[in-house]
Amino acid sequence: MEQLLAIDNADSVLFHSSEISEKYKKMSKAHRMNLEKIDFTNLPEAIRVINEWITKHTNGQMFNVIRELDARINMALFSVFMRQITWVRSFNPTLTKKKPFYAGGKSMEVEMMKRYYIYNVTEAKFANFAFIPINHNHQQAVIILPNEGFTLDDVFKHFKFIDLPIYYQKSSVSYLKLKIPKFTLLGSKDMVRTLKHFNVSLIFESNNKDFKDFAGENGFLKTFLQVVNVEVKEARTIYFSNTDDDAVMGGWKTDFICDRPFYFLIYDHNARIVLLAASIKNPNAA
């Protein structure tokens, strides 16, 4: 799993040793961003406090994520993105079978879920997109499957997150034979490099005037770490039907089989924002 981006202010905290302005404290509260003052001059104690926060906000699933911190640090942003995917139309666990997944010239056995249903899909030269309703129809799980002859790197070059609403608007309904491997996204990632890749670098510069306005002369963001725990599997509850949906619906269908590396996104179509993006190269690896 290679996490690219995740947004969820509900479980985010800015650890700081600077004095934060009252104006920014109010803004942080409005956006559900927690502020915690910490003594970064005592790095071992700061690391302990931060790791305890991460453990608490991952329900005890992750420990000692932070091993060391830069001695120059005075602000660090941490965010936890946790989701139990709830499909609007659940996958039937009895239809999940061991199937090959091809990556890097090799194949591996994965647990492949299967579903026949009507979904929104759209095509591009470099990939096919499938939009799968999740979380009570408030969001979409978006599968971006590279076309033959294209790689994840090619998709990354051609596709921009900001354009996803356009792909969704251009999508049309199609009856799919959908196969997706079960997988878990569990890990942490330093987002500084990722954001700099998207030309978001000013927030990490010590001469940033905006940071000086709310955190004083020496205030600037040194670290931005995100912890992700997303589980993608069949229904959370018992699936009562033992019937293959294909036998019920019948008719012509389009294959959408994720048997090779693909991108997995969580998209909030009301807010028009990508909440999570990750590349799935090995579904068996958390």
Report on this structure.
With 286 residues, this protein is an alpha+beta fold. The strands form two sheets. Strands 1, 5, 6, 7, 8, 9, 12, 13 and 14 form a nine-stranded mixed sheet that branches. Strands 3-2-4-11-10 form a five-stranded mixed sheet, sandwiched between helices. A hairpin with a 3-residue loop joins strand 6 and strand 7. The longest helix is centred in the N-terminal third of the chain and has 15 residues. It is elongated, with a radius of gyration of 21 Å. 29% of the residues are buried.
Q: How are helices and strands ordered from N to C?
A: EEHEHEEEEEHHEEHHEHEEE
**Helix fraction?**
10-25%
What structural class should be given to the helix and strand makeup? Answer: alpha+beta
Beta strand count: 14
**What count of structural domains?**
2
Distance between the termini: 7 Å
Tell me the CATH topology of the largest domain.
Answer: Antithrombin, Chain I, domain 2
This entry's quaternary arrangement is single chain
How is the main sheet built? 9 strands, mixed
Shape, principal axes of CA atoms: elongated
Segments where pLDDT lies below 50 for 5+ residues?
237-243
Strand content: 35-45%
- Overall mean confidence score, pLDDT: 84
Q: In DSSP terms, counting alpha (H) and pi (I) runs of 4 or more, how many helices?
A: 7
CATH H-level superfamily of the largest domain: Antithrombin, subunit I, domain 2
CATH uppermost class of the largest domain: Alpha Beta
CATH architecture designation of the largest domain:
2-Layer Sandwich
**Rg measurement, Å:** 21 Å
Pfam families: Serpin
Domain Serpin: 3-283
GO cellular component, one term: extracellular space
GO molecular function: serine-type endopeptidase inhibitor activity
